[in-house]
Amino acid sequence: MNKPTRVNHPPPVPVPADNHPVVAPIYQTVKFEFESVEETVRNLRGERPGFHYMRASNPTTRQLELTLASLQDRDDCLATASGVNVIAQTLLGLTKQGDHVLCFIESYGPTRQIIRRLLGRFGVTHTMLSIEDLAGIEQALSTTSTRLVVFESPTNPVTKIADIAAITRLARRHGAQTVMDNTFAGFHQHGEYEIDYFLHSLTKYASGAGDVMGGAVIARAALLRTLRTEFSVLGGVLDPHAAFLIQRGLRTYFVRYREQSACALAIAQRLAAHPAVARVHYPGLASHPQHELARRQMREFGTIVSFDLRGGAEAGRRFTEALGLFAKAASLGSTESLVMAPQMLKPRDLTAEQLAVSAVTEGTVRLSIGLEDPKDLLEDIGRGLAAAEA
Ligand SMILES: Cc1ncc(COP(=O)(O)O)c(C=O)c1O
Description:
The structure is a single chain. By secondary structure, the protein is an alpha/beta fold. The protein is built from 15 helices and 12 strands. The chain folds into 2 domains: 37-250, 3-Layer(aba) Sandwich (Aspartate Aminotransferase, domain 2); 253-389, Aspartate Aminotransferase, domain 1 (Alpha-Beta Complex). It is 41% helix and 14% strand. The strands form 2 sheets. Strands 1-7-6-5-4-2-3 form a 7-stranded mixed beta sheet, with helices on both faces. Helix 5 links the parallel strand 2 (100-104) and strand 3. It is globular and about 75 Å long. Pyridoxal-5'-phosphate (PLP) binds next to helix 4.
């Protein structure tokens, strides 16, 4: 074999069948081959297991999908390139012209945009309500034939809690499927509810390191069968190297979620006791208006703490800029703490009336609590609050 050929056909290094890597290797390959054309064709027809092309599946990505499915108490999962990508592909894959979708003012902004702008262009209509408006949900479902109910809990950024049992019951009664973005609550919560499709941004708690993006839809295998076909032509595939990093991040997921949630509660309590703060939004606080519902649905309350400063947007800016340990950045769920000032948070697509329902005020600040020493974070928050009051 000449050298230009050798570099394209490197020597194989077979690993003996009784010799296993402790950490699964990264299958950084787009293509897989079988030894015969016949086996290739059988695989393409779904008559035998194996891999063919990365856009359809890859062993590294598949391992991550199966791990995530088991964490969320379902039996299948499709991983994609980002959280927003999985929201878009799932909603596109599940709807057709003439369908109606029920969605919520308090949802993640890009989800609202996908429903309004993208699905709207293809003749999918929607009704947008407050996640707290159960009577409105019942009314909408009983008067308009609805394909999907798309919601989150806790919501971003003010951590309102959706009554999941009530919403899934109403959806089922009226023949709608439920799609829940469960990114905030994590993979270990809400699995016992009759949610049809769970969506997650893997960019957040799964990876934990804030250095990689990913998304996932998790559901019963029968529900994902059609979506798998749609996803393979929409093409927002997760790269195996990213899948490997996310799988590695999951090793510490439970410890991180627990520690970061405990620190978030301590910070929420400190904020609630401070005169510069008008209101704290954290479902783990007894003062949260839906604390009892949160306790019924969740075992841990997450790492997002939002609060309203009495001094409004300017106080929010001073608070944010006085912090030394919180990066002024979007995202959440990684090990470093983050802050979003009111100027960074304000939804731009809502009417004044919808903005009032969203409960995001001129002085709302959002914190994402990381894995630093809680004492250091509390001290930093103290500096921020002093600046907010100045
Ligand atoms: C609730 C929620 N869903 C989805 C996303 C989007 O995830 P990604 O940034 O991975 O696209 C975010 C991002 O902040 C989010 O907060």
